[in-house]
Request: fold
Amino acid sequence: MSTDYQQAREALGARLRELRLSAPTGRLTGTQLAGRYGWHKSKISRLENGKTTPTPDDLRMWVEATGQPEVYEELLTKLQGFESRIRSWRRQLAAGHKPVQQTIAAVYERSRVVHGFESATVPGILQIPEYARSIFQRYAELQRSPRDTDEAVRARLKRQELLYVTGKRFKILIGETALRSLICPPAVLGAQLDRLAGLVGTDTVQLGIIPFAAPLKLPPTGGFWIHDERLVTVETWHAELWIDDADSIATYLRTWKTLRESAVYGTDAHNLIFASRRALLAR
Reply:
């Protein structure tokens, strides 16, 4: 978690403590406040010390309990300010996977040039429905989130319409691992490889594949996506990072360009896909 994020969370916690101690009807103890809503008493200290991120409902109940409802908008603005940088999956997926897909689709729609890198999975923007379904099912199990798989798949496929919009460019790098990882049934992976092969050489998609045997100037890490050099999104196991400061964006763009030096395109990319297809059939 970034230092800036944690400092912002601690500042919000300090403001919550201030409101509790300055309640117009008299200061509330943490035990009194927790008891009002049936919260565990440790929740108060964790919120006030910046150990836990409050939800909008937490903030609303806090200002009501302390008799200061007019402060709610101030607190919500602070929360939204730092959550726009680090968006926990727990909170994003509370309403299911479909809303998350719609949010990221809006970012793609605004973007003219998208640079992307994924080391071990086929990117969502290139996935076939069955592959996407396997991904959503596995992440719903991991995150214990609502299983709105069909709706999420439809939303992801809707985003793929952008691949055919004149003027947009998708410059995507994937590792050869993505061609062979059985995150889905073998037949589904086979169909997904056929889909990738069909995208090689299209007008809007420049697909590069980094072979296992390629010399690397950088060790590939997690995936990231750069939108018009104005925003970088990075997925981790606990959250999605939205990075918009110029220096960090420049670093990710340099990283992408360095990884690109190890990628192959066109016929060589086709050959890797077909080799993976043959290996799959030989299992």
Q: What stands out?
A: The CA atoms of residues 186 and 283 lie 9 Å apart.
